[in-house]
Specification:
Blueprint lengths: L1 H28 L10 H11 L5 H21 L3 H15 L23 H13 L7 H14 L10 E5 L2 E7 L12 E6 L4 H15 L7 H20 L10 H12 L4 H8 L6 H5 L12 E3 L1 H5 L4 H4 L4 H6 L2
Antiparallel strand pairs: 1-2, 2-3, 3-4
Keywords: DNA recombination
InterPro entries: DNA_brk_join_enz, Integrase-like_cat_sf, Integrase_catalytic
Protein name: Integrase
């Protein structure tokens, strides 16, 4: 009996955590501040929109987690209007079947590769350039991949990124997507683009301009969702049959690998990636061996100073030793 009860409590904890993470993700996508309430129906609609690209089992787990989280909020709400919003969102979510989810999802780690080598990158870019008139999202994907490959931003962060022209060069200002989850040291980070490599600034300008004039006047989150789905289909067409395929996020992984191969210090890499500590990119991103030396952005010294150095706190640990290999 105790084992069953223990499993139930652990399951509820897991549901509560995942439900909160889904809501934080939606808030970040729509640019809501840390104290701005998220409309519960918006979270439900977001989850439903993701169904075509996730497996049935992932859909069931996400649905159960978000439902659990919204039920907790409804039970604790003293605002009648808020309670009705939560109940309305719960009704929509409860009535949504798993029909439309994939037998095997496109966003699982089983088929997503960390990083995208130069050979695959060139194949993809060449295909997109040659087919801009044939595929609606080819240009969008091309400019997004190019800028992400060179700067390492999370795809969702491009919606609020902007450039500052300074006397000492061009700076890309990025709102950290993980700041609301306390997984980024600062609300914003600043990437100094190399003046010796104008291709970086040009790629960023091309993407930011394209986002402002995105096709159909879609909201940024919807634009990104459609471009991501196109990436899934295009990758299979371009790269042929294989076990793993790159996603847009893979190009962020590749940036991390290139930075490691270039000898970028761990705390600067964390600042470039928008992490709170120097451990995240080290253990959860592509390895140095997968990278190619040569990146053309540098982190703000203020951002670097704010990074928590977890690895240095335990120099004798296995993980700390692994970093030096």
């Amino acid at each position: 009996m105790m084992n069953v009860l223990s499993r139930s409590i652990e399951t509820e904890k897991a549901y509560a955590k995942r439900g909160r993470e889904i809501c934080v993700r939606v808030s970040n996508l729509y640019g809501l501040g840390p104290h701005e309430p998220l409309p519960p129906e918006l979270a439900v609609r977001y989850l439903i929109d993701q169904k075509p690209s996730v497996s049935k089992s992932t859909w069931r787990q996400n649905k159960a987690a978000l439902k659990f989280h919204l039920e907790e909020l409804a039970c604790g709400s003293r605002d009648d209007i808020r309670a009705r919003e939560l109940q309305g969102a719960l009704e929509i979510l409860s009535n949504e079947p798993q029909t439309g989810a994939m037998r095997r999802g496109t966003r699982t780690s089983a088929i997503k590769q960390k990083g995208c080598g130069r050979q695959d990158f060139v194949k993809i870019i060449r295909f997109l350039r040659a087919n801009m008139d044939h595929y609606r999202w080819a240009k969008s994907l091309g400019v997004l991949l190019g800028a992400t490959y060179l700067t390492g931003l999370r795809p969702c962060e491009w919606g609020q990124a902007y450039l500052e022209e300074r006397e000492d060069g061009v700076v890309l200002v990025v709102r950290n997507a993980k700041f609301g989850e306390h997984r980024a040291g600062q609300m914003f980070r600043r990437l100094h683009l190399s003046p010796d490599q104008p291709i970086v600034a040009n790629a960023v300008r091309a993407l930011l301009s394209h986002i402002q004039e995105r096709p159909g006047g879609l909201a940024f989150s919807e634009w990104l969702r459609r471009v991501s789905l196109f990436m899934t289909r295009a990758g299979r067409s371009i790269l042929g049959r294989r076990k793993r395929y790159p996603s847009i996020y893979s190009f962020r992984h590749q940036f991390a690998a290139d930075a490691k191969a270039s000898g970028v210090p761990l705390e600067e890499l964390a600042a470039l990636m928008g992490h709170a500590t120097d451990a995240t990119a080290t253990f959860h991103y592509a390895r140095r061996a997968q990278g190619t030396a040569g990146i053309h952005v540098r982190a703000s010294s203020v951002d670097v100073a704010g990074i928590r150095r977890k690895l240095r706190a335990h120099p004798s640990s296995r993980r700390a030793r692994a970093v030096r290999i």
